[in-house]
Amino acid sequence: MLAWRQWICLLAVLVISMAANTAAAQYQNGIPVLLYHHVSEDKRDLPRLTVTPAEFERQLALLKHAGFQTISPGQLLAYMKQEPVVLPEKPVLITLDDGYEDNYTNAFPILKQFDFSAVIFMVGVNIDREERLSSRQIGEMSAAGISFGGHSVTHRDMTVLTGPELVRETKDIRKLLKKAAAKDVDVFSYPYGSYDLAAWEAVAAAGYQAAFTVLPGLNKPGRDNVYLLRRIPIYDNTDFNALFRLLDANQPKTKLLAYSPEYSE
């Protein structure tokens, strides 16, 4: 009887181990972070950076039905630091830059439809501005599980700013967002994806735990720095079906993951 019990225990351990290895294999090349801007039918303003609500919904449906689950910035950070963290088998982080009002009116309901979370990187001067997110909308989304991160105060290229300007662009937006979101703001996104050592140091000194670039590829511990996290931009002409197949196979090297500066804002 003891031998049978030992075999059963051994089998249980093997099953758990195999499941863990399978889960790890889903992101052994790194975790993807998707980058969106506008989610709108109106493409007059920055058309290349605009995805229609129907297309946004289709893309999230593909991810959901394939077993992808969104994670928080904190989970990604723990993974990158190789700290203990519980992750889904197919993790993905969704981000939206600049803080357009359509992130609330169009993207937010679709995210909730699929039980997905996201991070919105907000520009300080955009808060309560016409066609941008209001303090009330930020607070509502924050209470519903949407995270917010700093994207500077004025959306200027941080590589051309002086020391005092860098301090203002990083610290002031953090204060504004902490008040609007009623939560800590621990992540930052470099405007235009532009950064240098001074910008990096200013972000860290302002108290952020991580920062996002537009460097292509997946984020992998031991290779990527938490202040230079990679993102995959989604444009109006992105072949998402092809991209999805690569994401599903956890393939990190492809031109589809690259950022096009001419589309930036």
Helix and strand arrangement:
Blueprint (H helix, E strand, L loop, with lengths): L1 H24 L7 E4 L1 E2 L10 E2 L1 H13 L2 E3 L2 H8 L9 E9 L3 H12 L5 E4 L12 H9 L3 E4 L12 H19 L5 E3 L7 H9 L4 E3 L19 E2 L6 H9 L17
Parallel strand pairs: 1-5, 1-10, 2-3, 4-5, 5-6, 6-7, 8-9
Helix pairs in contact: 2-4, 6-7
- Tally of individual domains: 1
- Please bin the fraction of helical residues: 25-40%
CATH architecture: Alpha-Beta Barrel
Name of the CATH superfamily: Glycoside hydrolase/deacetylase
Which CATH C-level class is it?
Alpha Beta
* Radius of gyration from CA coordinates: 20 Å
Structural class: alpha/beta
**Order of secondary-structure elements:** HEEEHEHEHEHEHEHEEH
Percent of residues in beta strands? 5-15%
Characterize the largest beta sheet: strand count, sense, and whether it forms a barrel.
6 strands, parallel
Summarize model confidence as the mean pLDDT: 89
CATH topology: TIM Barrel
Based on CA inertia axes, which overall geometry fits?
globular
Count of DSSP H/I helices: 8
Keywords:
265 residues; alpha/beta; TIM Barrel; 8 helices
Textual characterization of the structure:
This protein is of the alpha/beta class and 265 residues long. The chain has one domain: Glycoside hydrolase/deacetylase (TIM Barrel). The protein has helices at 2-25, 53-65, 73-80, 102-113, 135-143, 163-181, 197-205, 240-248, and strands at 33-36, 38-39, 50-51, 68-70, 90-98, 119-122, 147-150, 187-189, 210-212, 232-233. Helix 4 (102-113) links the parallel strand 5 and strand 6 (119-122).
